[in-house]
Specification:
The protein is of the alpha+beta class. The protein contains three helices and twelve strands, in the order E-E-E-E-E-E-E-H-E-E-E-E-E-H-H. It holds the Pfam family NUDIX. Its cofactor is Mg(2+). This is 8-oxo-dGTP pyrophosphatase MutT (NUDIX family).
């Protein structure tokens, strides 16, 4: 029904188990790759940013779309360096989530590293108002206060906290 370089909107004819049909809109999106790093003090590098669609501020991992032909982990590393100024070391998969699988086929691939090298101010610094090292132990309370509003980011941060702090 509609397409551009970011997404496509399709209309699907869904057949229910009882044989009835219904029309269902499907938003087809490119995959998203996200990454962060955890330092020796068990602090995670996050961005504080505004999302105009929901008019909300919150903490997030650096993230962006995977370009055509790009490996997902390479996209995660690229986005992290562009948005934070930190180049991650070896990335490990954290999780893959489908944030709204009743409406879209979006898959968000989250990665993390144990080390990173500061390369200078972020090339895409405009995407966040600040970048900070946040203690992982604070993550559950931050999520409870609504400071991590994106479900994919909350899930990834909780998984990371669980893996590293129990």
């Amino acid at each position: 029904m509609y397409a551009n370089r970011w997404f496509r909107v399709n209309l699907a004819d869904v057949v229910l188990p009882d044989g009835r049909h219904l029309d269902h809109f499907v938003i087809r999106l490119r995959p998203v790759a996200a990454a962060t790093v955890v330092n020796e003090a068990n602090e995670v590098l996050l961005l504080w940013r505004h999302r105009f669609i929901t008019d909300s501020w919150g903490w997030e991992l650096a993230a962006g779309v995977v370009e055509d032909g790009e490996e997902v982990a390479a996209a995660a590393a690229r986005e992290m360096e562009e948005e934070t100024g930190w180049r991650p070391g070896e990335l490990s998969p954290l999780m893959t989530v489908e944030p709204a699988n009743g409406l879209t086929d979006a898959r968000h691939h989250l990665f993390w590293a144990r080390e990173a090298t500061y390369t200078g101010p972020p090339a895409d610094g405009f995407e966040s108002s600040r970048r900070e090292w946040i203690p992982l132990k604070l993550v559950p309370d931050m999520i409870a206060r609504g400071e991590v509003p994106a479900a994919n980011m909350a899930a990834g941060l909780l998984m990371l906290r669980h893996m590293l702090l129990g």
